Amino acid sequence: xxxxxxxxxxxxxxxxxxxxxxxxxxxxxIHDKVQHTKSGLTRRVKIASLKGKDHVQWLTVPLKKxxxxxxxxxxxxxxxxxxxxxxxxxxxxxxxxCPYFSECYSYLKRYFMEAKSFTFLSDLNIRFVKDLCDLxxxxxxxxxxxxxxxxxxxxxxxxSIIKAVxxxxxxxxxxxxxxxxxxxxxxxxxxxxxxxxxxxxxxxPYHQMVITPDFGVSIIDMWMNVGLDGIKxxxxxxxxx
Length: 241
Known about the structure:
By secondary structure, this protein is of the alpha/beta class. It is 39% helix and 15% strand.
């Protein structure tokens, strides 16, 4: 049986679409051997805002000074201030009236307490992703791209990673359509499937106590509103292999 592979950077408390991708594959490659981008979601994430349905707010992990071309696996967390307390306070103020607040917030308090033992951002982010996959009973396996050996760029880089884990089917996000050469997958006998998580959410919205127009908010938003069982049901319906 051919292995289904997905690849993504280790984002900070990512959105539900990230977990749909994990659930859809056999092997999820955590792409930590790639340059950090300031506009990316490796160190920050959006959540709802009490300012109203047209607003979101950002939670950002402070980092030690680094090069603009720093590789994700090398990014170090700045612990000169207790940013975890700030994040928890913002989350509490935003979501304390939600039906599954206690379930989610109890986990987040433990997560942020344990976060203080981490030096590198990627380790912090990977911990959250793996914890949630365990809670959501997602059984895909994980591998860091920094543990693999490849020499390529752009689409060829993805193909090299897929081949390194003996994959024959690649699950891609819709954003990759802007730069990805689909024909190269065909040439390398790799089946390519696009997962349109935004359309899935748009067609299957979940109830929100604090309404946000943005589909990219952290999965904690969904957790606060529908609980782990609600997320499991959503993934079972829309994240199947």
